[in-house]
């Protein structure tokens, strides 16, 4: 047995508790859920951060975060590994991808160079394992360029990169070869949307196909969201997604560079600015400060960091960038790692109040 942080809840709230812990990415899959009398203990990856505690409070009427000793889970090999065991040598099985992204009916994997000769058989095994998947794509480049695109290779199933993805009750039409979209940001989409208050104006500076803006509008009817993107293909899908989700009255799509759009049309209009361009967001902090209302507002700032202390680095970079404007950073509301994107490289979010 091993001790780790746990969520202690009554058994009658077990289903809700497990669902929210999975949703916010806190569930530790290495251990078995434990039961003691009228309570369940759900193993956690780490002690919840402030925003994660808010999500738990929103769903659960009563809970406690406490240390608990768990039995380790003995995992059976994934089924697609079983399908490959008699078709590939042992070194291939040892190098199979551990993570699969699902966007609609498309599965996306990243394969080691040593698996080049086995990618079709790996793709076919994934199709057989995941019944809803119609296409398996292998990443063939990193994300690059102004539009944040990457190249893919179809290794099994239908030859396509366009699909329909469902997330938090919203529908997103997306073409992975033409637009940037990451299902790993689902929790961030929900977290930001849940923080928006009635009557707010939101500027989504790098909106893509609408992952943030559309969910904001679905969760809060009395809101106005300006969704900006420079990619014409993303803008086309953004417009389509606004219509299919019936948020035309709340989301206003704008095609163009965020700096130019804010300077020309959106100065001092926003209560909240979303800056999901982690490669270059620091270069647009002055623009976000221009968009914030004179009385102040909130910036949701994302960046990539490969420093030993990525969260502290992101906080410092944002603070320094704000100091170069005529605004001031009043306080850091939240700062956390969103996800790992490469060894020792992380996407970090900082929520900051600007005055």
**CATH homologous superfamily caption of the largest domain:** Vaccinia Virus protein VP39
Q: Reading side by side through the largest sheet, how are the strands ordered?
A: 13-12-11-14-15-17-16
- Second CATH tier, the architecture of the largest domain: 3-Layer(aba) Sandwich
Mean of residue pLDDT values: 91
Low-confidence stretches: none
Rg is 22 Å
Query: In total, how many beta strands?
Result: 17
State which percent range the strand residues make up. Answer: 25-35%
Give a structural overview.
The chain is α/β, with parallel strands linked by helices and about 350 residues long. It has three domains: about 70 residues, Alpha-Beta Plaits (2-Layer Sandwich), CATH 3.30.70; about 80 residues, Met-10+ protein-like domains (GMP Synthetase, Chain A, domain 3, 2-Layer Sandwich); about 170 residues, 3-Layer(aba) Sandwich (Rossmann fold). About 30% of the residues lie in helices and about 30% in strands. It contains eleven helices and 17 strands. A seven-stranded mixed beta sheet has the order 13-12-11-14-15-17-16, with helices on both faces. Strand 9 and strand 10 form a beta hairpin. Helix 6 crosses helix 7 and helix 9 runs parallel beside helix 10. The termini are far apart.
